């Protein structure tokens, strides 16, 4: 495994988050996904501050799969400009690391 990543994106509807998680799991671009929410998001959009409820999708993957994963998220995401944030996982248990490596496409 090169570098383990935690990738986050948000959706207006939980069904869209579930659809994305399933698609990425089936392609083995992620090893697991967690959906939480609703959460309250406030952000700038088209010159105004807006607030909305969203569902967060947090996924575990690997740096070697990131660009393909990002492309899939862009293609399937209903937002015009989806949040796609990848954070390097600096520490994780050896058992989890082995499981992650086994479940991801290489």
Brief descriptors of the model:
106 residues; alpha+beta; Alpha-Beta Plaits; 4-stranded antiparallel sheet; 4 strands
Q: How many beta-strand elements?
A: 4
Q: What is the H-and-E element order?
A: EHEEHEH
Strand adjacency order, main sheet:
2-3-1-4
Q: First CA to last CA: what distance?
A: 9 Å
The CATH topology assignment is Alpha-Beta Plaits
Q: What is the CATH class? A: Alpha Beta
| Overall spatial form | elongated
Strand-pairing-aware structural class: alpha+beta
Radius of gyration of CA atoms, rounded to a whole number = 14 Å
β-sheet strand percentage? 35-45%
Poorly predicted runs: none
Bin the helical content.
Answer: 25-40%
Number of helices: 3
Mean pLDDT: 96
| Major sheet size, sense and barrel closure | 4 strands, antiparallel
- Give the tally of structural domains: 1
- Under the CATH scheme, the architecture is 2-Layer Sandwich
How is this structure best described in words?
With 106 residues, the chain is α+β, with helices and mostly antiparallel strands. The chain has helices at 14-26, 66-76, 94-103, and strands at residues 4-11, 32-45, 48-62, 85-88. It has a single domain, classed as Alpha-Beta Plaits. 32% of the residues lie in helices and 39% in strands. The chain has a four-stranded antiparallel sheet with strand order 2-3-1-4. The chain is elongated and about 45 Å long.
């Amino acid at each position: 495994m090169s570098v383990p990543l935690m990738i986050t994106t948000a959706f207006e509807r939980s069904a869209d988050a579930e659809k994305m998680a399933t698609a990425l799991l089936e392609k083995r671009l992620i090893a697991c996904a967690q959906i939480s929410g609703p959460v309250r998001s406030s952000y700038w959009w088209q010159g105004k501050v807006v607030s909305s409820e969203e569902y967060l999708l947090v996924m575990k993957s690997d740096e070697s799969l990131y660009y393909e994963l990002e492309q899939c998220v862009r293609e399937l995401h209903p937002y015009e400009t989806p949040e796609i944030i990848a954070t390097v996982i600096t520490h994780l248990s050896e058992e989890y690391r082995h499981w992650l490596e086994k479940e991801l496409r290489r």
